[in-house]
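Exam revision sheet. Question 4 asks you to relate a sequence to its structure. Input first:
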Amino acid sequence: METLFTMGHLLDFYGGLLTEKQRTIAQYSYHQDLSLSEVSAIMGITKQAVSETLSRARTALLRHEEVLGLRNRFYTLESEVERIAQEIHAIGEEVQKAEVKSRLERVETRLLALSLEEDVEGGIR
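Answer key, structure tokens:
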């Protein structure tokens, strides 16, 4: 069973591909961690309808990730950006020439800024 965290991220990536009802119920369930009863009361539908809609949304989100793999690619790229930034920093520490070191620091800063922009925007640009 996927975690609430995982399903929330999948919803961030693929929520736009769900129906409006699926997306709304999934947001209540995965982002706000509301129970079926709470969502049922908010939406004015039965708990069974919430459960079935959430199940369809979950299946769709997992299928989209299986086919497109955007979440997995995002985390792979994020990890690689961090590794490259660490390597650039390590090289900069070893370099004696101030000009080269300064250029490496600028590249490191730009690389980390890309990673932060992705985090802030909640996805890949």
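Marking note for examiners. The chain has two domains: 4-68, 72-121.
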